[in-house]
Amino acid sequence: MRQNAAIEPGGTIGILGGGQLGRMTALAAARLGYRCHVFCPERDSPAGLVTPFATIADYGDRAALQRFAASVDVITFEFENVPADTAEFLAGLKPVRPGPDALRVAQDRLKEKDFLRSIDIPTTRYQEVTSADALIRAVRDIGPQCVLKTVRMGYDGKGQVMIRPDTDLADAWRKVGGAVAILEGFVDFTCEVSVIVARGANGAWATYVPVENQHVHHILDTTIAPARVAPEIAMRAEAIARHVADQLNLVGLLAVEMFVTAGGDVLVNEIAPRPHNSGHWTIDACATSQFEQLVRAICGLPLGSPERHADAVMKNLIGADIAKWRDALGDPAARLHLYGKDKARPGRKMGHVTRLLPRR
Ligand code: AMP
User: Fold this and answer.
1) Distance between terminal CA atoms of the chain?
2) Predicted confidence (pLDDT) per residue in 168-188, tens digit
């Protein structure tokens, strides 16, 4: 198959990962006439429940990966902790979009910050930390208010310790597991925003309006679309997201999370080369959802309009919040999305509700 030939409806998309992002990608793909084949280690995953084509195997199972690759036309991933070696192996067999390079950058907080710095994107101050002594030195350099994070496998606040002047640094070092870590200066932000950009193989892009994200216990709770920031800040945030996507030569979706400060700085916190929780509102409020945009980008179809026909507030249903699903049914402005997960553990994203509002 030629690298740039479009994969037309009827083709099969392989998705690494079985979570809700894969589920909503598979649903968007189905609407456009594609099949999806989900590869993940878990049985009855949210994505696996919406398609008959699923492989349940470890990401290191080469024979299973080979069979998976043979059954699909293009491969994408729905979470960035898929081992980069797995993506690399698959890339030798079928197009993987976004490619393994974007994955390697996004799954390592140090590589990510170094990359951003190399392309002149502002971030908070940071330093690599490899020992308890190095942590003491780094806190001296960066300041008494900072955040210590594991370099790998951290998400939703996992592997993070807030450091204040009275924090016991030896204890903080133990809490992040004593592996390689990154110390970041604490950003006293006025709000957190994110921008999702879709980029096609031909370099065309479609950018969603910046949205405002409110976290509770480090987990996204609410997204307000659009973000309540000055037009100049919104334009800068969009330009940053496009620049990062271009520099990664990314084909697919990129979400860029940023802090906005009182002084008007826009600092990138992290990037994710996949659909993002802060883009779920696009399903109900935009001409083309982030999930459809991903399908279009990786299949070589023209991108759709990211224009919104309504403003929106998206609220995650986390853990026991799932019990509120009935409330959404009687509200004509609410769109309910449930992920088919059976156990409502604390911190687990079970679904979300998007409420549509007249466009400002
Ligand atoms: P992360 O896992 O890096 O996305 O962090 C989760 C949340 O922790 C962010 O959305 C922020 O609310 C907070 N956070 C992370 N890093 C910093 C920082 N350097 N300064 C202030 N807050 C932070």
Assistant:
1) 46
2) 999 999 988 877 899 999 999
Q: Is 238 in the pocket of ligand 1 (CB under 6 A)?
A: no
- Alpha carbon of 268 to ligand 1 centroid (Å): 10
Six-digit token string for 66: 């080979």
Give this prediction's pTM: 0.96
State the residue for tokens 């883009």.
279
**Does ligand 1 have an atom closer than 6 angstroms to the CB of 243?**
no
> Which of 151, 218, 220, 268, when mutated, tests ligand 1's pocket best, judged by the most ligand atoms within 8 Å of its CB?
218
- Give CA–CA dist 44/342, Å, rounded: 9
Q: What is the distance between the alpha carbons of residues 114 and 314, in angstroms, rounded to a whole number?
A: 32
- Angle CA 198–199–200, to nearest 5: 125
Helix (H, G, I), strand (E, B), or coil: what is residue 304? Answer: coil
Write the DSSP string, 43-78. TT-TTGGG-SEEEE--TT-HHHHHHHHHT-SEEEES
Summarize pLDDT for 63-113 with one digit per residue, the tens.
999 999 999 999 999 988 899 999 999 999 999 999 999 999 999 999 999
Cross-strand bridge partners of residue 185: 146
